[in-house]
TrEMBL record:
It comes from the Bacteria. GO terms for molecular function: FAD binding; oxidoreductase activity. Residues 1-177 form the FAD-binding PCMH-type domain. Keywords: FAD, Flavoprotein, Oxidoreductase. This is Molybdopterin dehydrogenase. It comes from Paraburkholderia steynii. The keyword Oxidoreductase applies.
């Protein structure tokens, strides 16, 4: 493995300042699951890794917002979300999806911001969060901006994030009793990466479907809305 610098900033602003918008070999690292795999495979040879471990407590909160939305710090570990009583009660689609997302070891380490920012099309969370109408807060040297999760990925391992921007928060509207489900097909075990995943959220008027959100993942280079299925 080629030697690299490991920086450990003490604030989000310091972390952003250590990134370089022009240098793809400087990477932020939260849980590090994807980064370590890429380094072992020789796909990534960083000159500097910016560890977010020392600012984790500030950006790993799971709480209800003033309008009933779920607010998730970008450094929240997937296992924390999985076991959160707030998530289980108010966002059961997220809770059930997380139970079969990869394995326990990965969920104990991986963060929600890293999971979304990695933009691997074979992921469970992007289509599920898209179906729920979630958005992310992106923080960079010029401040904050908000982007729908549906618009975050632009292609294979590509996002709208600049190299000196980080996902600081994920905001999920209330599920509010809406019927919802996520189903995936895997080539091996149930917790494996999806070969195909479909997330569906329904808005009901009485016993009639008023609006459907149908998002497919893993079949294309980014989560894709099935507009024809939504209008049936």
């Amino acid at each position: 493995m080629i030697p690299f610098e490991l920086a450990r900033p003490r604030s989000l602003n310091e972390a952003i300042a250590l990134l370089d918008p022009e240098d793809p070999d400087i990477r932020p690292v939260g849980g590090g699951t994807a980064v370590m795999l890429m380094m072992k495979a020789g796909v990534l040879r960083p000159t500097r890794l910016v560890s977010l471990r020392d600012i984790e407590q500030q950006y790993a909160l799971v709480r209800a917002g003033a309008n009933g939305e779920l607010r998730i710090g970008g450094l929240t570990r997937l296992a924390t979300l999985e076991h959160s009583p707030l998530v289980k009660e108010g966002w059961p689609l997220l809770s059930s999806t997380l139970r079969t997302l990869s394995n326990v070891r990965v969920r104990n380490v991986a963060t929600i911001g890293g999971n979304l920012g990695h933009a691997d099309p074979h992921m469970d969370m992007p289509p599920v969060l898209t179906s729920l109408g979630a958005r992310v807060t992106i923080t960079g040297p010029n401040g904050e901006r908000t982007v729908p999760v549906e618009e975050l990925c632009t292609g294979y391992y590509e996002t709208v994030l600049a190299r000196d921007e980080l996902i600081s928060e994920v905001i999920v509207p209330p599920q509010a009793g809406r019927p919802a489900a996520y189903m995936k097909v895997t080539t091996r075990a149930a917790h494996d990466w999806p070969a195909l995943g479909v997330a569906v959220v329904l808005d009901m008027k009485g016993r009639q479907i008023d609006r459907a959100s149908v998002i497919v993942g893993a079949a294309t280079d980014r989560p894709t809305r099935l507009t024809q299925a939504e209008t049936l």
